[in-house]
Design brief:
Rossmann fold; Helicase, Ruva Protein, domain 3; 208 residues; 2 domains
Length: 208
């Protein structure tokens, strides 16, 4: 774990205590401290800088929830979908945001990247805002084993063999253009293609 200044260390300790309380009876303090330290390492010091405690807390919390679901210690209350692309800055973020919108919160979704970027593609953020999806608080996250294990459906987007394969899961590969370095009109087209696929997926998972 990178060396943190005393103030940041204090905030990291505070978020650790919060996770210890939240996952009491499920995970030990040692496991939670390890996940916090791993999450800070995985996110990278340059990426999270002053946001170390906030982003490490969010990333570690999602990983712990996924671990608990995968191990059967936490009950799944909704279908779980994982989107994986290379940078987790474009396609997978658009898909995740659109699933949240189209499912009205009835599908839990995660996204990750095999080689995460520093930040989301601004054109992707703009294109999603146009259809009522706010991803201003999202950030690229590396792919970790437990989020794959927790998913019911894993959808890859141009990341090759980076995603581990587990039996009993539904895997799909969506062939889509990469929005990186594309103009806004092109990103809108990619968004709309993803939205069509997302709506079919949501209907399949929770169709009334």
């Amino acid at each position: 774990m990178p060396t943190l200044d005393p103030v940041t260390q204090h905030h990291v300790q505070q978020v650790t205590e919060g996770l210890v309380d939240e996952f009491a009876g499920i995970f030990s303090r040692e496991t939670i401290e390890r996940y916090i330290a791993e999450s800070i390492d995985l996110l990278g010091e340059s990426k999270i800088n002053v946001f170390v405690p906030v982003l490490a807390h969010r990333f570690a919390r999602e990983r712990l929830k996924a671990l608990g679901q995968a191990d059967g210690a936490i009950t799944k209350e909704q279908p779980e979908v994982l989107f994986v692309c290379v940078q987790n800055a474009g396609r997978s973020q658009m898909a995740a945001g659109l699933v949240r919108l189209r499912s009205e919160g009835r599908v839990h979704v995660r996204s990750a990247g095999s080689a995460p970027a520093e930040k989301l593609n601004p054109a992707v953020v703009k294109a999603l805002e146009e259809v009522g999806v706010d991803v201003s608080e999202e950030f690229p996250k590396p792919l970790t084993d437990e989020v794959v294990r927790a998913a019911d459906v894993v959808i890859t987007m141009g990341c090759g063999d980076a995603c581990p394969i587990y039996p009993g899961k539904r895997y799909e590969d969506w062939e889509l253009d990469d929005p990186a370095e594309q103009d806004l009109d092109t990103v809108r087209r990619i968004r709309d293609e993803i939205d069509e696929r997302v709506q079919r997926l949501v209907d399949d998972l929770i169709g009334d």
